[in-house]
Design brief:
This protein has helices at about 10-15, 25-40, 50-60, 100-110, 150-160, 175-180, 215-225, 270-285, 300-310, 325-335, 340-355, 385-395, 400-405, 435-445; strands spanning about 45, 70-75, 115-120, 165-170, 185-190, 210-215, 255-260, 290, 365-370, 410-415, 420-425. The chain has a single domain (about 10-445), classed as Alpha-Beta Complex (Amidase signature (AS) enzymes), CATH 3.90.1300.10. The protein is an alpha/beta fold and about 450 residues long.
């Protein structure tokens, strides 16, 4: 077959099973493409060609999962045993752990060669990928713009055809935000679907989870299958019931779908209109559609308190090495008490019950992923006096579903007049990945995006 590095991961895996190409050939092609394009993008901050090629040889000789032999990237917030895990921070640039974090161990078992580590904002605290240890990642659609964050390196890598799919993490939108900015699919699974272990107890009081960034809905489902699971003693478990890859097949179910373009943020006109056009498309597919959504505003203060507390809990020996935004966060957290933290967690849990009750009468909620398309680098959050408010407005549609623990995904369903991608978010009921994956597959067929390619690389 002709080697297409933009081909969906599931198609590459099928070609590997048919012996139409080898994982070694595919992995070498991605390594060559990274060497060529990464200097302009800064998506990868560490490449691991020796590891990837050895894994590719094993994939060609052995048996793995459904994505056996398809190369993947890992965000630099989680550990690949024996390689640096810097957390995007000068304060941790020499840190290395002897253990694979759970998603990495699962991907190794799946047979996916690991190409390297992708860029992130420091500690994943900014929703753009800049000002961290490795500097800014550039958006493949326009190099002057951010790819979003904090999994910006991962999304840029997928959009630029530098890997088959990517692991990311999402504590307030960090898988969905860059997926929206870069025109790819980003899936944040349910709380407890992917273990945070074996070293991390829970990320940000359960707000954070690992997730998948991919080119297609089928790839996102297969990537979730590859990483899902839990360890004994995990604080949250979402039990598996079959393969997510099977849930994208048509089942004839008619869904009750709500949509809203309202949040604590000003929404660009082109973004709002796309959401409305997607709602019309969903209705034309035979689903029931109504306008409205839950009130998520009360999450804001407690969410911010938990995040700054999580950052301050890290073993930071020299705060002067931190991004100034995180220096402010740590200073703020020092004035908080344990009681403040418990009250914030309780406030989120109590209000989550009210928000989730929206799904008593709905199956899916459609929203913008972001209120705007990708800003220019060096703009959003550049002023520390206003950065916190700017960021909370930017993530107004994503972070609430970290608070509730519901599955949510961003789909690249449109482009703005400047040629930048627009993402639309689907939010499912608790542990309802199958519901949103099924609807996402229908939308992918009705409003296809696979022919779109970045124009700046």
């Amino acid at each position: 077959m002709t080697l297409d590095l933009y081909a969906p991961a599931v198609e590459l895996a099928a070609a590997l099973r048919r012996k139409e190409l080898s994982s070694l050939e595919l992995t070498r092609a991605y390594i060559d493409r990274i060497e060529k394009l990464n200097p302009a993008l800064n998506a990868f901050v560490l490449t691991t060609p020796e590891l990837a090629l050895s894994q590719a040889r094993a994939a060609d000789d052995g048996h793995g999962g459904a994505l056996n032999g398809v190369p993947v990237s890992i965000k630099d917030l989680i550990s690949v045993a024996g390689y640096p895990m810097t957390l995007g921070s000068k304060a941790f640039e020499h840190m290395e752990m002897p253990v694979d974090f759970f998603p990495v161990a699962r991907l190794k078992k799946e047979g996916c060669p690991i190409l390297g580590k992708t860029n992130t904002s420091e500690f994943g605290s900014r929703p753009t990928t800049e000002w961290g240890l490795f500097g800014a990642t550039h958006n493949p659609w326009n190099l002057e713009h951010t790819p979003g964050g904090s999994s910006g390196g991962a999304a840029a890598a997928v959009a630029a055809g530098l890997c088959g799919f990517a692991q990311g993490s999402d504590g307030g939108g960090s898988v969905r935000i860059p997926s929206s900015c870069c025109g790819v699919v980003g899936l944040k699974p349910s709380r407890g679907r992917i273990s945070p272990g074996p070293v991390v107890g829970e990320g940000w009081a359960g707000l954070a989870t690992d997730g998948v960034i991919a080119r297609t809905v089928a790839d996102a489902a297969a990537g979730l299958d590859a990483m899902a699971g839990h360890l004994p003693g995990d604080p949250y478990w979402a039990e598996l019931d079959g393969r997510f890859a099977d849930t994208i097949r048509p089942n004839g179910r008619k869904l009750r779908v709500g949509f809203t373009t309202t949040a604590d943020a000003k929404v660009q006109g082109e973004v709002a209109e796309l959401v409305r056009s997607v709602a019309r498309a969903v209705e034309s597919l035979g689903h029931g559609v109504s306008e409205g959504g839950p009130d998520t505003g009360p999450f804001r203060g407690p969410f911010q308190l938990i995040v700054v507390s999580g950052i301050a809990s890290l073993p930071i020996h020299d705060e002067s090495l931190l991004d100034p935004f995180n220096q402010l966060s740590v200073a703020f957290a020092k004035n908080l008490s344990a009681s403040d933290y418990v009250r914030a967690v309780d406030a989120i849990r109590v209000h989550a019950r009210q928000v989730v009750s929206f799904w008593d009468d709905h199956d899916v909620l459609i929203t913008p992923t972001l209120p705007q398309t990708a800003p220019k680098l060096g703009t959003l959050g550049a002023n520390l006096d206003t950065a916190g408010d700017e960021y909370m407005e930017f993530v107004a549609f994503t972070y609430p579903y970290n608070c509730t623990g519901q599955p949510a995904m961003s789909l690249p369903l449109g482009m703005d007049s400047a040629g930048l991608p627009i993402g639309v978010q689907l939010v499912g009921p608790p542990r309802g990945e199958s519901v949103i994956l099924g609807l996402a597959a229908q939308l992918e067929h009705a409003l296809p995006w696979s022919a779109r390619r970045p124009t700046s690389i």
